């Protein structure tokens, strides 16, 4: 039994199948995560090694070269690159696309174990870093305070950071900047030499004393108690009275050679939000989590938490990637809606029948719903690429139904009954529309075999368009055929009255005359083309050659430039510049922003680097005490505001004119394009 025959003879079963598809599709749609782009995992693994206090030359000779030599024998390695900076080594292994990165990671760890034997003892444990687009921060938040600034780090860490980590979907919360608590031991060099001691003696003694040890267990009656000997410091007075050494019956305490204070770490990064000293909070989501939903939960939590903070502590959202995602998805969704509406209107203008147009229009939602089911099964997200594929396919999914309906109407005009016309009319063109659909499918199918980042991004487009077109073929042969047997029980001409013409009849006859006119004009053009074959072929070849010429004049780029309302400036000063001097230039950059960008809503600046900021080098960023990053959140783009690119070009010469500026990079794109593909000049 053919599909059209099944659809027409068993309409209830057919409609129940599509009703089930509708329910499953809507459920799948509700479960699909929302993101900007498909999750991308580049075929690269980085080994990050922190060598505190070492210069770039020492890092190169003592760490980078050793790690490079050991990792050079990793399987499936395409190339290996490295960066040696002050206190940091980054060695990146790039592999051939398509390999299993988990196996490659294990291979890198095995080779790294051999390298550790010859690395300096002073380094921190090397970290194997595998980048994924899910690691891109989804939200940057700024916090500043006046009176509470010394306690700001502790307040944000305990009252906000710990709470945000409990929100489903939040992966990590990192705090950048501000004063972080630290117990400082200030050693008096003269006294230390007087007791013939070294800094190493004090360091070892402090480490040995600051330990809590297990002491077995104690059983009393029905209870078994775990015992431990507490030895960790609880206050600075305990540390002052630690015995460092004993010389000639004289006990040397720590307070005899050093001053102990409960203070803060040395400030290596200075952060300001809207001109006030503060810090930044970087929030990352877990892999596979819905970016938009996680961002909404974070914003809801911040409204609750902010009420419990001290009055002088202010929170501001500096960057929220969900805003750009929502806007992009909204624009594409609107495009799909309008595309569907215009498709239906065009179909109606040509067919001039409401019932026939409804049959064809129903092909669109059911084809897309079937596509949503496959997206859920394949673990895809609703993103720019997946919605683009639906926008492309929405104009093609009606082709099969149009052919089916048109042929069924032709059989009805011959006098056949609705059921017979639906079966014979659909079966007659079934093979033709199947061949047409598969011809279109083979155009997109090869994109599934692309490699690299291009393959990851466009594979979804190829698969979803293929699924949508095949779904439209199945829907046209079954659902559309069944609807034709139920709805096409009368023809327009049968409803027209000769005595009084209705508005619909007037529209039908007028449009019919217009189509006949177009048909006559087309026949004239076709007759001329057949009589002048050589000229027709020559015109076609000329148009093709001119198109090839124009193609060479069109620029190329991987990702088009976009205005997300975020403007970021990175300024590089001479290497070795103190963070205090760097911050002076940062203040001048902030003044340039405030004086020249009236569209600015919020501004932040970072001068220098923090310990956690070192890992920005893995993404290709510049780090060091000489680096300034200033960012601004702009108003939404409209007729009254300037594009971010125009603003960037306006402030560029003013920043370049500042003393000591060696390099300047200005970017106005989304965080995704900046981190993954680079941005700015």
* Euclidean distance between termini CA atoms: 64 Å
Total of DSSP H or I helical runs spanning 4+ residues: 23
Mean pLDDT: 82
Biggest sheet, in brief?
Answer: 9 strands, antiparallel
What ranges have pLDDT less than 50 throughout 5 or more consecutive residues?
A: 671-681
Fraction of helical residues: 40-55%
Number of strands: 19
Structural category is alpha+beta
What is the radius of gyration? 35 Å
Strand residue content: 15-25%
Approximate shape: elongated
Present the secondary structure layout:
Layout: H1 3-9, H2 11-31, E1 44-50, H3 56-71, E2 77-85, E3 88-95, H4 101-116, E4 127-130, E5 139-144, H5 152-164, E6 170-177, E7 181-187, H6 189-194, H7 199-209, E8 213-220, E9 223-229, H8 236-240, E10 243-247, E11 250-253, H9 254-257, E12 258-264, E13 269-273, E14 276-285, H10 291-305, E15 314-320, H11 321-351, H12 354-361, H13 363-378, H14 384-393, H15 398-413, H16 418-444, H17 452-487, H18 492-495, H19 503-531, H20 533-553, E16 566-572, H21 579-596, E17 600-608, E18 627-634, H22 644-656, E19 663-667, H23 671-677
Helix pairs in contact: 1-16, 1-17, 2-13, 3-4, 5-10, 10-11, 11-12, 11-14, 12-15, 12-17, 13-17, 14-17, 15-16, 15-17, 16-17, 21-22
């Amino acid at each position: 039994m053919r599909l059209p025959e099944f659809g027409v003879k068993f309409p209830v079963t057919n409609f129940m199948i599509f009703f089930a598809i509708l329910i499953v599709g809507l459920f799948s749609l509700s479960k699909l995560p929302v993101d900007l782009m498909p999750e991308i995992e580049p075929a690269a693994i980085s080994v990050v090694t922190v060598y505190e206090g070492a210069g770039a030359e020492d890092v190169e000779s003592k760490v980078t070269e050793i790690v490079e030599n050991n990792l050079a024998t990793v399987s499936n390695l395409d190339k290996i690159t490295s960066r040696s900076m002050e206190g940091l080594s980054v060695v990146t292994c790039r592999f051939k696309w398509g390999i299993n990165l988990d196996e490659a990671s294990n291979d890198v760890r095995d080779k790294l174990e051999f390298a550790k034997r010859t690395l300096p003892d002073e380094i921190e444990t090397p970290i194997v870093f595998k980048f994924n687009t899910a690691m891109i921060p989804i939200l940057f938040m700024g916090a500043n305070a006046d009176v509470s600034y010394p306690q700001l780090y502790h307040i944000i860490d305990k009252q906000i950071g710990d709470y945000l980590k409990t929100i489903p979907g939040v992966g990590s919360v990192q705090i950048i900047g501000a004063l972080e608590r630290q117990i400082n031991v200030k050693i008096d060099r003269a006294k230390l030499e007087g007791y013939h001691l070294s800094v190493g003696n004090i360091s070892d003694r402090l480490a040995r004393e600051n330990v809590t040890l297990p002491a077995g267990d104690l059983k009393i009656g029905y209870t078994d108690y775990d015992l431990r000997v507490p030895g960790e410091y609880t206050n600075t007075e305990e540390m002052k009275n630690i015995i460092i050494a004993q010389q000639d019956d004289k006990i040397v305490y720590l307070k005899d050679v050093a001053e102990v204070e409960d203070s803060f770490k040395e400030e290596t990064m200075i952060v300001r939000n809207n001109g006030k000293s503060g810090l930044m909070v970087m929030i990352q989501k877990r892999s596979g989590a819905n970016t938009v939903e996680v961002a909404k939960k974070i914003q809801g939590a911040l409204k609750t938490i902010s009420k419990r903070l001290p009055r002088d502590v202010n929170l501001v959202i500096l960057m929220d990637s969900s805003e750009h995602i929502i806007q992009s998805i909204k624009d594409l969704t609107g495009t799909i809606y309008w595309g569907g509406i215009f498709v239906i209107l065009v179909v109606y203008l040509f067919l001039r029948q409401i019932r026939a147009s409804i049959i064809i229009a129903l092909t669109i939602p059911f084809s897309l719903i079937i596509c949503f089911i496959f997206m859920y099964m394949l673990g895809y997200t609703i993103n720019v690429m997946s919605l683009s594929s639906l926008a492309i396919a929405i104009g093609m999914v009606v082709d099969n139904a149009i052919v089916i309906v048109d042929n069924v109407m032709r059989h009805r005009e011959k006098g056949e009954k609705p059921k017979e016309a639906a079966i014979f009319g659909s079966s007659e063109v079934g093979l033709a529309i199947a061949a047409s659909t598969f011809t279109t499918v083979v155009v997109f199918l090869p994109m599934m075999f692309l490699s690299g980042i291009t393959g990851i991004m466009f594979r979804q487009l190829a698969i979803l368009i293929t699924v949508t077109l095949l779904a439209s073929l199945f829907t046209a042969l079954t659902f559309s055929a069944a609807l034709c047997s139920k709805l096409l029980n009368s023809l327009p001409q049968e409803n027209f009255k000769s005595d009084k013409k209705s508005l619909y009849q007037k529209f039908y006859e007028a449009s019919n005359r217009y189509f006949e006119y177009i048909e006559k004009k087309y026949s004239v053009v076709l007759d001329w083309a057949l009589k002048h074959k050589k000229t027709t072929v020559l015109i076609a070849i000329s148009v093709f050659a001119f198109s090839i010429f124009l193609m060479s004049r069109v620029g190329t780029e991987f990702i088009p430039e976009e205005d997300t309302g975020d403007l970021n400036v990175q300024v590089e000063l001479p290497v070795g510049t103190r963070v205090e001097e760097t911050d002076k230039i940062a203040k001048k950059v902030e003044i340039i922003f405030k004086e020249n960008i009236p569209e600015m809503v919020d501004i932040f600046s970072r001068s220098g680097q923090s310990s956690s900021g070192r890992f920005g080098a893995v993404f290709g960023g510049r780090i060091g005490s000489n680096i300034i990053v200033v960012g601004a959140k702009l108003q939404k783009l409209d007729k009254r505001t300037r594009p971010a690119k125009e603003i960037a070009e306006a402030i560029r010469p003013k920043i370049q004119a500042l003393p000591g500026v060696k390099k300047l990079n200005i970017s106005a794109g989304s965080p995704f394009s900046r981190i993954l593909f680079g941005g700015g000049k």
